[in-house]
């Protein structure tokens, strides 16, 4: 769909794309609320229960770059529609779950759909408008995802309490069907210029490489970071990386052009994105533990106390995108990093008797920092490459952000250790473990501030297309 089409047509197409984004965010946040009931139903251990979310995240993260590349080559609308179908099918299957193993498998099917939706939705949404408006659209896209994260816990809690845990998947089915038919009718895609073979070997090696490293991150806390399981997976990942690089160097039309992985614009954005997600997951992992285990709040009150962070992100994200359109990505990203530095310095001072007002201010700053960061950095990295590579760039960038989040959760878990069990006696001053985790995040955010000064201008293509015929290689003539 071209930016010159009517405002109404573009608005309907954008609403369709954003609804799919909202659906995936809503699903993830609702499932988190339902996990205790899943544990009660299947009688599984807590360590296995985490795979309801971890298994989904692993498949989702690994597939995003692959789905982005498929969208670049064969049409983003096609892959987007495939993703919506698979996600909806996975949701239907989850309602018929008969065992914990079947639930994990059906959640993986959902993740395949989400992985196909996400990178292509981002590029389709921005392609509806001119490059000068891309930041605003990315900000709106980020805000819609935040709305899903805000609504999910409350809606999921209501459904689980008055129906059962399977009801959190019922919601996805009518919305998924609506999005599919709306996308079929409203999203346009030009004819392919030239078909080229997909680099299946490269995609397979890439998927296995990323999966090895992510599995190592996921099982570290369970088996010990010096355990043979973790080091075996890490060694396998290193070996697969070498095989992947060799395959891509030999392939005439690789899944990922390796010059992307060494480009300054991309690497700077990746560092900023990983620090952003590291910070976000540190707060997301530690604050519920602090509020419930250290301060003794109930789950309902804890959920309400975490709302301000997400609500602020909803309002800040669109404005940060507009700022990146007017002034470039460095200003809003730098402000966001500064807000995160202040946030973690304040959080490091938390103690058992910290007031709700103090915690609220910290979470408001956290939401503002996250909202200022997300769309400008993504705007920078998308604008730095040729449009024929936008899908794989979006998928690869967002995958690295997930890796940053996983690292944040793993490191915070190591640093906190058993401190959360010490909620009996009143402990004066900052709490060891939480203090170290928040100070580590503040140092990383400070490093992120200086790195963000090197972000590329989102409206200046810093890197030429790797081939003179890149547009032909993409096989897509339209903007979507």
Q: What does it look like?
A:
By secondary structure, the chain is mainly α. It has three domains: 1-197, MFS general substrate transporter like domains (Growth Hormone, Chain: A, Up-down Bundle), CATH 1.20.1250; 199-254; 264-462, MFS general substrate transporter like domains (Growth Hormone, Chain: A, Up-down Bundle), CATH 1.20.1250. It has helices spanning 7-42, 46-49, 51-74, 76-95, 100-127, 134-162, 167-170, 172-186, 200-223, 228-250, 258-261, 264-294, 299-327, 330-347, 356-383, 390-416, 434-452, 470-474. Helix 5 packs across helix 16. The longest helix has 36 residues, at 7-42. The model is unreliable at 420-429 and 462-480 (pLDDT under 50).
List keywords for this structure.
18 helices, Growth Hormone, Chain: A, 77% helix, 480 residues, 3 domains, mainly alpha, single chain, disordered C terminus, globular
Write the layout of secondary structure elements.
Blueprint: H1 7-42, H2 46-49, H3 51-74, H4 76-95, H5 100-127, H6 134-162, H7 167-170, H8 172-186, H9 200-223, H10 228-250, H11 258-261, H12 264-294, H13 299-327, H14 330-347, H15 356-383, H16 390-416, H17 434-452, H18 470-474
Number of domains: 3
Largest sheet: none
CATH C-level class of the largest domain is Mainly Alpha
User: Residue share in helices?
Assistant: over 70%
Number of helices: 18
Q: From the alpha carbons, calculate the radius of gyration and give it in angstroms.
A: 22 Å
